[in-house]
């Protein structure tokens, strides 16, 4: 099913907007996780994905492979949703080891 | 320069590092014939390697920070030349001379000393930056320094990505330059930095004390870090007391004032919080070592993230710079393991690395992965590099080569991929050597007798942590580690490009 991960800090000016996009996607049934880089959990997750600036939004599949990311700016919700649609693909469509969608 | 380094070494236990050495020498080298230039490079390395003025007759622990391009923050700075006078040009205009000199230095490193051994000191640290790859001639230079890395192991590759600028020294210590430092770069002599000490935290000890309770574990880390900070406060108060005695005190050299502030700029001093045995802590707490599962790796990252945030908090609270550093731990990794075996057995007996029956026990250094794990080198560099952005005062990944002698192109390709595709701060390739005391010849690998004359009077040489040394001087813990090291033999020879492409 995959998920969207959103990395923010309290002081970054674009981060509230990233939060809003995340909330909107959540309302539409997308699994969204928020990470605050001022907490150990958030900072550790950011280090794991080599996140260097905020806000960062990334979409990953079930195997924690990153399919798309937006670094330092906030995309329109539709852009994120477009990638998420791949994750909501019908049964029989799989992403192979190289990250390519196969039917 | 060498004599002043000797004077400084008698005040500091750690390394004496010099920034952009080839750049600052360049104005003095204009018009110097190649032969003389080469002689100067040889003299610099010989003198630094022979000045046995440090504790117990050791050579000065010296680091030469070197650049292929003139770093951005020095490019437009007025150059100082012969007679200590401005030359009327900027350092940027001396790039060709700086490049000639750095090439000459590496040609000397390639030869090694009279017996073909690598020079232990001074250590050459080459900064790999975005501009490095834009500067003509970089490919040829990268091949040269990679050849030295393969043949002698001297080269350290320091990665300054984006706008990052730093000065590196000691085993892995680095000072990241902020805006005020870059302002100081207009007057390079003002750029004087020091770390007052490193207080190292025994992470496996915290795991034993916490008995599997995560809340307790993080509370204990906080408690240990607060104790380390208290140690720093006491040390700083003591040093300030000595400095206040000025010229009459024991630290007179550090109080001299030539440019409006004391030589030792306490306002810019850092206080290091080190760590040993993250890998073992994670194993005790989660049952897995960091390279064995993603969850274990993420838990290790959470521990270091917690320590980093604590260091930031302490810095604000005390108005001082507390930063994390990977403790090199030549002896600490051994000492902590021995102490825990005494106080936390039987559990510690299952956790410490090495051979208990020989007494050769140790913990894995700092945030490193298990060094005996047969990890692909690029995977090790990537995984260990995930920690590096959290460890502001320096981190390093070792690639143990053993007897392997990879080709320069293969290593150069590896270095480029590490710069582009990982967050790793610094890497070093470490070969092993045997040198014969009888016939004064040096061969690759650790051997019990000289293959030339058959003598058993041989000495093994390799990197202990952040520098080369004779194995006969190692403690039992490091000897145990040496037995366990996974050597990347054969992984680079023909497979370099494929291995690197697998990032």
What can you see in these coordinates?
Chain A has helices at residues 15-27, 40-48, 77-87; strands at residues 3-8, 32-36, 56-60, 66-71, 94-95, 101-102. Chain A is of the alpha+beta class. Chain A has one domain: Glutaredoxin (3-Layer(aba) Sandwich), CATH 3.40.30. In chain A, strands 2-1-3-4 form a four-stranded mixed sheet, with helices on both faces. The longest helix of chain A is centred in the N-terminal third of the chain and has 13 residues, at 15-27. Chain A is globular and about 30 Å long. The relative contact order of chain A is 0.21. Chain B is of the alpha/beta class and 503 residues long. Chain B has two domains: 2-190, no CATH class; 194-370, no CATH class. Chain B is built from 18 helices and 19 strands. Chain B has helices spanning 2-9, 21-29, 34-50, 72-75, 95-111, 138-151, 179-184, 203-210, 214-243, 252-255, 278-286, 294-318, 332-343, 347-351, 377-385, 408-421, 476-484, 496-501, and strands at 16-18, 62-66, 78-80, 86-90, 123-129, 156-160, 166-169, 173-176, 195-202, 270-276, 321-326, 353-355, 360-362, 397-402, 426-431, 433-436, 442-444, 458-463, 468-470. In chain B, the strands form six sheets. In chain B, strands 1-2-5-6-15-14 form a six-stranded mixed sheet. Chain B has a four-stranded antiparallel sheet with strand order 17-16-18-19, with no helix packed on it. In chain B, strands 9-10-11 form a three-stranded parallel sheet. In chain B, helix 6 (138-151) links the parallel strand 5 and strand 6 (156-160). The longest helix of chain B is centred in the middle third of the chain and has 30 residues, at 214-243. Chain B is globular, with a radius of gyration of 23 Å. Residues 494-503 of chain B have low confidence and may be disordered. Classes of the chains: A alpha+beta (103), B alpha/beta (503). The interface between A and B is medium-sized, with 13 and 18 residues.
